[in-house]
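Bumping with the actual sequence this time:
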Amino acid sequence: VYFGGQAVVLGLLFLLNSDASDAFNFLFYILTFHAAVVLSIRMATIWTGIYFVIASSVSLISRGWDGLYAVFFYLAVFIVCTILGNTVQQTELTSERNQSLVDELKETQQKLQELAVVEERNRLARDLHDSVKQQVFAISMQLSAARTALSPTDKAYSSVVEAERLAQQAGAELTTLISALRPPALESKTLANAMSEHVDAWSRQNNIAYELDIDSTVSISQQTEQALFRVLQEALANVSRHSKASQVMVTLRSQDDTVALVVEDNGAGYDAKHNKRGVGLDSMRERLMAVNGTLEVSSLKSQGTSVIATVRRS
């Protein structure tokens, strides 16, 4: 429509029988260049032919056979304009393809970095499980044997009992750490299933009741799923360590373009206004910041704690 309308306008200008016909032809050259830049080579050739026929017809009608020289000149100019326009088009397309390749390269590089991080975390988890955890378990067994051999009246008995308790606590902490380093593979599960299984296992391990309200239709990127799962792990770890709670409520819901994970407990709580930092809270915030998410923590003493992680679907 645009190029046809321009042809009609320039054709009407020629009908004015003005002495500025050469200037009108120059407008045709610009229009030909424009068509070659934005249209396919086939369509650009068709429009160039139309413009050439109009300009040549006007020249032959107004000048007779003397206008034949102008026709050959127009032919050369229109061809040059078409070639230049198509060259510009190909240059722009090449630039877009190069930019697309650069974007793909950056995305691939980021994925490789993430894979390297995951592999390193898995290696560290294996090393902790195969060496440190086994040694802690062996120490715990030795202390248990020593406690059994001692009488409660012995001076060393209370020290051995305390050492055994600390060894068991260290083993539990290592189990939590290994689980955090090497979480369930979300690639083979949905986020809802992975969360449900983790909360159930955590509940049995810590003897804390739970309720779930998880939307199984939530669909987000793998990186965002990983961030939310890590936040759930850290939030539940904080509940078991500090809250003295008897029940936890875990909610995963979506609304419009956002997804929210809420972990609420009925524990002792704390003064969130004056205690906004901590390794656990900082870790959760950093994970969410990596996916443009936010973390909100509200808590009052003796009224429990609520952790809300919000991320965007896109």
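The tokens above came from a reply further down the thread. The two ends are 37 Å apart (CA to CA).
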